[in-house]
User: Which sequence fits this backbone?
C-alpha cells in the first residue's frame, strides 16, 4: 500500500464559471467550426486540403449561408480543435464532434486545443523573420500569466514591457545578439597575423535607432499575439488594454496547475526516464498514478514524451507496455497519430486498438469487443507475462478468469497457436501457481508442447 500523501484537488480561481458554463462559451466560440464539421462529415468528397478546395468551399458557403472567408476560417478551426480528422483525401468527423452535444469535457478539450494553436489561427504579420515570431510565441505564456494574475484589464504598455523583457531573456539564454542592436561580432584577424584594417566607409548603426526598431517589432508582435488570442476567445481587447475571458482565465489557470503538479512530483519521478517513471508508478492506485503521469508529461514536449513512452512499450517488459499505454491515455488527442501508426506492430496492436477505441468514444468496458479472438488471446498472454514478472501468484491464477475462451482446454489450444514469445514462461508459471494438480499438469503439458514445437 502506498503511503504517499495526495495533493488535494485544486479549485479554480474565485469567480470562475462552472464547467457547464465554460463549455457553453466554448461551444459558442466554435459554433461555425461545428457547423462546417457536420457539413464536411455528410458532404460527398469535401476535400482534404487546407483551405478547402475551391468547389467544396463554394458548396459549403452556399449550404451554410456563410462567406467563403468564414468557411475557410471555420474549417481551419474545426481541424485544429479535433472536430475533423483528415485521413488521406477523406475528411472524417473527429471523436469530439460525435461527443460535442453531450460531453462538456470533450468540448473544453477541443477549445483548449484551439487555444494552444492560436498562432496558427491568426497569421503572423508579413515580413517578420520566423525566429522573431517563434520568440514571441514562446514569450506569450508570460503575458498570459500576468493577465491571469491581474484578474482584470491590463494596460497594453505593461504587456509590451513584459513581452520585450521575456524575449530579451530568451535571446540571452541562447547567447544570441538581437539583429540591429549595434553590437558587433568579434572581428577575426587576417591569416598573416596583421591587425585587420578599421572600417572607414560604413558607420556603426545608432543604438537609439536599433532600440527603436526592436521596440517597434515587439509592439507589432504583441498586437499580433493579442489579436490571435482574441480570435480564439481567450481575451477581449479594449481601448489600450486587454482582459482574459472566463475561458482564457480558466485555461491559463489549468496550465499553471499542471506546472505546479510537475513541481510537486514525489520521489523525483519527473526527472526519470519513461521506464523508471512507469516502474515507480506500478504499485500506485489509478488516481495517483495518473497524477504522476501528468507531472512527468508536463515537464516534456508532447512529441518527445509520446516517442519515449512508445519506445518503452516496444520493449520486452509487458508490465511497462501496459503502463505506457495508460500514460498515453493521459496524453489524449496529441498522441493519436503516433498510436495509430503502431497498430501494425504485433506486440503493440491490441493495446493500440483498445486505446484508439476509447479515444473514439467507446466505453472501456466494451472496448475489448473490437479485438479479434487472436488479438485478445495475445493480450491475455502479455498481461499474464506482466503478472508473472511483477505480480503475485494468486493474481496469475485469477487471471485465468479473464480469458475469452471460457474453458482452460480451449485457452491452451489458442495460446499455443498465438505465437507470443513469452508463452512457455507464462504457462510454466501458471502451472506452478495453480492449486489444482490436474489443471496444472495440463498446463505444463501445453508448455512442453510449445517449447518442443509439438502439437
Assistant:
Amino acid at each position: 500500500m502506498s503511503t504517499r500523501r495526495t495533493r488535494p484537488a485544486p479549485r479554480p480561481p474565485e469567480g470562475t464559471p462552472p464547467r457547464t458554463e465554460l463549455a457553453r462559451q466554448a461551444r459558442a466560440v466554435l459554433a461555425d467550426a461545428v457547423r462546417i464539421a457536420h457539413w464536411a462529415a455528410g458532404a460527398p468528397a469535401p476535400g482534404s486540403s487546407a483551405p478547402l478546395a475551391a468547389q467544396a468551399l463554394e458548396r459549403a458557403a452556399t449550404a451554410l449561408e456563410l462567406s467563403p472567408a468564414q468557411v475557410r476560417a471555420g474549417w481551419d478551426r474545426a481541424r485544429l480543435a479535433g472536430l475533423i480528422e483528415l485521413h488521406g483525401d477523406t475528411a472524417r468527423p473527429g471523436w469530439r464532434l460525435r461527443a460535442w452535444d453531450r460531453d462538456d469535457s470533450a468540448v473544453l478539450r477541443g477549445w483548449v486545443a484551439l487555444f494552444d494553436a492560436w498562432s496558427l489561427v491568426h497569421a503572423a504579420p508579413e515580413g517578420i523573420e520566423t525566429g522573431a515570431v517563434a520568440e514571441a510565441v514562446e514569450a506569450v505564456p508570460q503575458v498570459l500569466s500576468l493577465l491571469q494574475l491581474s484578474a482584470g484589464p491590463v494596460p497594453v504598455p505593461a504587456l509590451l514591457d513584459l513581452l520585450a523583457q521575456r524575449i530579451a531573456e530568451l535571446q540571452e539564454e541562447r547567447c544570441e545578439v538581437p539583429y540591429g542592436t549595434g553590437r558587433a561580432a568579434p572581428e577575426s584577424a587576417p591569416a598573416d597575423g596583421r591587425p585587420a584594417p578599421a572600417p572607414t566607409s560604413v558607420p556603426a548603426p545608432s543604438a537609439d535607432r536599433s532600440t527603436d526598431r526592436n521596440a517597434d517589432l515587439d509592439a507589432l508582435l504583441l498586437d499580433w499575439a493579442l489579436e490571435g488570442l482574441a480570435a480564439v476567445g481567450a481575451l477581449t481587447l479594449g481601448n489600450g488594454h486587454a482582459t482574459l475571458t472566463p475561458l482564457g482565465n480558466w485555461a491559463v489557470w489549468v496550465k499553471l496547475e499542471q506546472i505546479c503538479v510537475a513541481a510537486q512530483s514525489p520521489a523525483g519521478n519527473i526527472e526519470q526516464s519513461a521506464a523508471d517513471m512507469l516502474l515507480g508508478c506500478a504499485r500506485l492506485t489509478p488516481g495517483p498514478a495518473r497524477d504522476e503521469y501528468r507531472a512527468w508529461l508536463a515537464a516534456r514536449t508532447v512529441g518527445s514524451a509520446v516517442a519515449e513512452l512508445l519506445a518503452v512499450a516496444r520493449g520486452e517488459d509487458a508490465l511497462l507496455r501496459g503502463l505506457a499505454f495508460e500514460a498515453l491515455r493521459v496524453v489524449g488527442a496529441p498522441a493519436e497519430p503516433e498510436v495509430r501508426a503502431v497498430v501494425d506492430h504485433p506486440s503493440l496492436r491490441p493495446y493500440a486498438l483498445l486505446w484508439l477505441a476509447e479515444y473514439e468514444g467507446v466505453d472501456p468496458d466494451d472496448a475489448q469487443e473490437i479485438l479479434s479472438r487472436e488479438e485478445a488471446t495475445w493480450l491475455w498472454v502479455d498481461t499474464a507475462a506482466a503478472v508473472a514478472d511483477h505480480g503475485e501468484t494468486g493474481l496469475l491464477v485469477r487471471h485465468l478468469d479473464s480469458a475469452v475462451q471460457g474453458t482452460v482446454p480451449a485457452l491452451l489450444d489458442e495460446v499455443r497457436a498465438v505465437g507470443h514469445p513469452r508463452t512457455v514462461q507464462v504457462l510454466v508459471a501458471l502451472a506452478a501457481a495453480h492449486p489444482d494438480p490436474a489443471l496444472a499438469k495440463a498446463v505444463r503439458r501445453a508448455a512442453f508442447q510449445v517449447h518442443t514445437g509439438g502439437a
Remarks:
- The first helix runs from residue 19 to 29.
- The CA atoms of residues 102 and 126 lie 41 Å apart.
